[in-house]
Structure formats: structure tokens, C-alpha cells
Write a structure and sequence with these properties.
Fumarate Reductase Iron-sulfur Protein, Chain B, domain 2; mainly alpha; about 190 residues; 2 domains; binds iron/sulfur cluster
């Protein structure tokens, strides 16, 4: 990811983007004063292209292209550590979530196959009420045209009983289906 040049920040500041992030996340991003707590609490910073506090700053500066094209928003595990530690009570994880949704809507998803992974994950949640890891890996690998990725790990993990061979359905599947339907009708509006 190419970092925005400091002298171009004013030129590339997208005010509408700032308003949209605040509206869609329900968070007042302008309250962030860059204490760095969120970045320090995040277990994934080592692999982010921008630590989460820098993502917040880039949003404040309206750097839409850089933010929506970053890999950080996709590597975020939604663990909420940032939200818990923010002294301004900003739900930082919700900001990251809003950015992912905007990135899909704008067609600028940075990492190849990431949407495929999300779609397969959600399809299994819809079908069984929870994720079925073995099925997820198999479906993802086949659709991503890399069927043998991590195949060497399969027997070890299965022998240790860490992965189930068959999916288990939860009881409240109807409620799960309702959530998906509600989301689909909301998206269609
Ligand atoms: S929710 Fe995302 S950004 Fe926040 S701490 Fe967890 S992984 Fe990091
Ligand atoms: S913890 Fe809150 S105030 Fe501190 S940098 Fe992160 S978002 Fe900003």
C-alpha cells in the first residue's frame, strides 16, 4: 500500500467520506486524539499496513482511497480490544466494520479472494448456524483454485480432534435465517 504524501493530504481530503464513515459506523471519528491505545491493544498490528489508530487518523483526514484500499481493514478480527481500550468511548471495531462494508460497495477490496472467504464463511453460518471449519477450508480452497493449500496440516489437526468431519446444526436456525433475510432486504433498499 502506497502511503499518502503528507503534502497531498489536503488535496485528497474527501469530506463526504468522513461524514459517511461517521454515519455508517455511528461513531464520532473526530473525537479520536491519537492516544494510540487501540493500536497498542490490537493483536494484529504486526500484519496491518496501517495500525488501527492510523486508520482512524486517515479517516479524519478523509483519505478514502488509502483507507478503503488498506489490508488492515480486512485483517481486523473484530475482537473489540480497540473498542474496549479507547478513552473516548469510540467503538473503533465498528468503524473498521463500516470501512469493510464501504470497501465492498466501492469495489476496492485489497486482498484477492477475501470476499470469497467471507462469502463461504457466511454461507456455512446460514446453513448450520455456526461455521464448519473443515467444510470452509475445503470449499474455499477449491473455489480459490488452490485445492492443496495447507493439505499437509489436515491429518495432524484431524487426529488431534480439532476439526469435525461433519457439520453440526444449531437449534435456532430459523432465527439465523431471519437475520440473513433482514440483511438482504435492507441491502436491496
Ligand atoms: S477489532 Fe480489529 S482493529 Fe480492533 S483490536 Fe481487534 S483486530 Fe485490532
Ligand atoms: S484509542 Fe481511541 S482516541 Fe486513542 S487512538 Fe484509538 S480511537 Fe483514537
Amino acid at each position: 500500500m502506497q502511503r499518502p504524501h503528507v503534502l497531498q493530504i489536503q488535496k485528497t481530503c474527501d469530506q463526504e467520506f468522513i461524514k459517511r464513515v461517521e454515519r455508517e459506523s455511528g461513531q464520532q471519528v473526530s473525537k479520536c486524539y491519537q492516544c494510540g491505545n487501540c493500536g497498542a491493544s490490537c493483536g494484529y498490528t504486526f500484519d496491518f499496513d496501517f495500525p488501527v489508530n492510523q486508520i482512524m487518523r486517515l479517516v479524519q483526514l478523509g483519505q478514502k482511497e488509502t483507507v478503503l484500499g488498506s489490508r488492515s481493514i480486512w485483517l481486523c478480527a473484530n475482537c473489540q480490544a480497540c473498542t474496549t481500550r479507547c478513552p473516548c468511548n469510540i467503538e473503533v471495531a465498528r468503524v473498521m466494520e463500516a470501512l469493510r462494508i464501504m470497501s465492498v460497495a466501492e469495489g476496492v477490496v485489497s486482498k484477492k479472494n477475501i470476499l470469497l472467504f467471507y462469502d463461504e464463511f457466511l454461507e456455512l453460518v446460514r446453513r448450520y448456524g455456526r461455521v464448519f471449519e473443515t467444510g470452509l477450508v475445503a470449499r474455499y480452497n477449491i473455489k480459490a483454485l488452490k485445492p492443496f493449500t495447507d493439505a499437509d496440516l489436515g491429518p495432524q489437526v484431524l487426529m488431534k480432534g480439532k476439526l469435525a468431519l461433519k457439520p453440526h446444526k444449531i437449534k435456532g436456525l430459523k432465527a439465523i435465517e431471519e437475520i440473513f433475510k433482514r440483511f438482504e432486504s435492507h441491502r436491496g433498499k
